[in-house]
Amino acid sequence: MSTGSSLRVGIFVFDGAEELDVVGPYEVLAAWARVSPLHPEVVTFSRDGGGVRCAKGLCVVPDLAAADVGPLHVLVYPGGHGTRALAADPDHLAWVREMRERTPLMASVCTGALVYAAAGLLTGRTATTHWSAFDELVALDPSVLADDEARYVDDGDVVTSAGVSAGIDMALHLVARLDSVDVARAVRREIQYDPAPPV
Known about the structure:
Layout: E1 8-12, H1 19-35, E2 41-46, E3 52-53, E4 59-60, E5 64-65, E6 74-77, H2 83-87, H3 90-102, E7 105-108, H4 112-118, E8 126-127, H5 134-140, E9 145-146, E10 152-154, E11 158-161, H6 166-178, H7 181-190
Parallel strand pairs: 1-2, 1-6, 2-5, 6-7, 7-11, 8-9
Antiparallel strand pairs: 3-4, 10-11
Helix pairs in contact: 1-6, 1-7, 4-5, 6-7
């Protein structure tokens, strides 16, 4: 249901999406919608509006179909093994390029960057992806300046993140960028995200 906010974020879901690539950013962004006076609208959508089965079996029923999602300020594109087929689908890549034309900020998590690279969104840009996918990224577009150390890379109108849990860090960065550092800290506290490696 629409919140009436002019600030809309859409998370694209598809068969084979990595679960945490979807729900990590969603958790951050939904918490942002609760704590911020901006009350951004956060929606999930699939190609046809139908449910999807993620990489490890989680089924997700999205809010909308791609044709009905309407204007977005931010598009979040998760990774997962399903990105390989999408990166080779000319119709899907044309849709990604169309979204690029009308969406101010494009973000990817993990191997979502492979689809962006295949669509030409990362040409000559610095970007990151899952640690195991850098060879694939550069093979898709040799002009990409791959950053294999960053948790996320903000290159203006395109933001990419490293693998899986790095999508949480990227989403918090988006909150800080689009709202404020104080609100991002409030969201981090709300979701009790305080990463400290256990080993």
